[in-house]
Amino acid sequence: MEALVIQGGKRLNGEVAVSGAKNAVLPILAATMVQGGVYRIHNCPEISDVALAGEILESLGCRVERRGKTLRIDSRDATGTAIPAALMGKMRASVLFLGALLSRFGCASMTMPGGCPLGRRPIDLHLDALARLGASVVLWEGEILCDAPQLHGAAIELQFPSVGATENVLLAAMGCQGTVVLQNAAREPEIVDLIGFLQSMGAEISGAGTDTLTIRGGAPLRGTTYTVMPDRIEAATFLCACAGCGGEICLLGADGRHLTPVLDTLAAAGCELCWSQESITLRRLGPLKAVGEIETAPYPGFPTDVQAPMMAALLRARGSTRFSETVFERRFAHVPQLRRFGAEIELVGSAALVRGVSALRPATVTGTDLRAAAAMVVAALQAPGESYVFGINHLIRGYDNLDEKLRSLGAAVGVAAGKNTTGNFPAHGV
Ligand code: UD1
Questions:
Q1: Ligand 1 proximity of 355 Cβ (cutoff 6 Å)
Q2: Are residue 75 and residue 185 in the same domain, yes or no?
Q3: Domain co-membership, 346 together with 392
Q4: SS3 category, 192
Q5: What is the pLDDT of residues 262-290, one digit of tens each?
Q6: Contact at 8 Å (CB) between 327 and 121?
Q7: pTM of this structure
Q8: Is residue 422 part of a domain?
Q9: Ligand 1 pocket mutation pick from 121, 139, 229, 329 by most atoms within 8 angstroms of CB
Q10: Which structural domain range is residue 165 located in?
Q11: Ligand 1 test: best mutation among 128, 162, 299, 305, most atoms within 8 Å of CB?
Q12: Are residues 270 and 397 in the same domain?
């Protein structure tokens, strides 16, 4: 088992380029199955979730090649409609192939998707919406079997603006006869990016970025070339790291418009920020102040994916900050681990109250999901001395070259091999 070994207590300074967005590239890769064609996707992050999506595409009969940050996908000869359970279990976004396969072949079968353990994470909204489009959906011994000889248009209102359900409806709607109107749709920038990709294939969709999407099904589609948007959650993680450690960093390629509540929170905590559509600069010289209340919400609210890294950033902020999680039912797995650094955090129902402490101490911790692991890194960077962060398997799902990027900002981060979460092992690269 590998760990990141971090010598914390250093300020971060310098420039780093933000990678393509994990949550945008995954639905885009699923969308390449909607229509047989040749696709060139630029700015693909080198993360394990993208590699896994490539394996799923190959299992369906696509040819997938990577050259640097560009993926070339040829889905012309793909005929598969079933996704192997071993691949489904590793990633939540694998469920997006449901809409794509239904759209192209009129049938799909797969097991329940895996992903970060953040509570129950049902897919009822996906399945109900697909049924409204004319699919028959059967759940049988852990398998999802969908059949739809001809999908049709419909007016659908989601009970909650689920990101994945919105994406699955968009993908399935490509193969519908008639018009699909989706109300209470998710408005995340990654959805807008998926819509941009589908439009570049020839799709007719209006309302991108609003809560009502209108999709004319059956428009002729073709292969395309597309560049994935920058990863706003990766950008936010670096901002949290610099806010916690102090220093000045510039994130090249980051789009500040996508992160308004995060930037407002960091400004309220005492950071100086300067941003545009192409970069974000954060400077933190003085002490951090607590910000009172942070409540996660669907876009354009405070992103649930930044809740854990922001908590780690504010562990030493003067005063108290209350984090309320409203999107996922169990998303505080990082709290007991953050306490190992000496953090004072009290859990009260679906909220966590952080009381700022004057200093953190190094610790050996485990990130139990992707963003929890990112929070461990943000905390370890602030703690003078040597910390070990296990859970690299989660980090590489969503962060492209995290250790290298942090080193380029002056952090002392290396990778060490070890046997357990308490062992001592020689550190490399620190
Ligand atoms: C996506 C993101 C994830 C992010 C989340 C919320 C990807 C690959 N992942 O996940 O990083 O944290 O959006 O911004 O893009 N729900 C149901 N039934 C459903 C679907 C969802 O009850 O059928 C619930 C979920 O359990 C959760 C909430 O709705 O409590 C939000 O889920 P959703 O917006 O669907 O998130 P994901 O698409 O899974």
A1: no
A2: yes
A3: yes
A4: helix
A5: 999 999 999 999 999 999 999 998 999 99
A6: no
A7: 0.95
A8: no
A9: 121
A10: 22-227
A11: 162
A12: yes
